[in-house]
Specification:
This is Polyhydroxyalkanoic acid system family protein. The protein is an alpha+beta fold. It contains two helices and five strands; from the N terminus they run E-H-E-E-E-E-H.
């Protein structure tokens, strides 16, 4: 799944905000039991792993000139919730940039 969030910030500012606020990602996952780990794989790519309710979801966040792109690999057992997850990423991802 690929979710793009448009922005009008400089890439350096987007990276700064992500670095400062990536710990807040777990706060946006319902149930309060998620463990989120992030790591920067390059200047414009943040890796992300979310573990919750016995499931692991991996993905990455790409910082582009005009958008922030979340690429998430949902396990087949969770594919039915893809529209819900995409909507949550759009809403909460925008808040990470503010």
């Amino acid at each position: 799944m690929r979710v793009a969030i448009p922005h009008n910030l400089e890439k350096a500012e987007v990276r700064r905000r992500l670095r400062e606020r990536s710990h807040e990602i777990a706060d946006h996952i319902p149930g309060g039991m998620a463990q989120v780990t992030t790591d920067w794989r390059g200047e414009d790519e943040m890796g992300m792993s979310v573990a919750a309710m016995g499931q692991a979801i991996n993905g990455r966040v790409l910082v582009e000139e005009t958008q922030l792109v979340f690429e998430v690999q949902l396990p087949p057992a969770l594919s039915f919730v893809e529209p819900l997850v995409a909507g949550a990423i759009r809403e909460k991802g925008q808040k990470l940039l503010t």
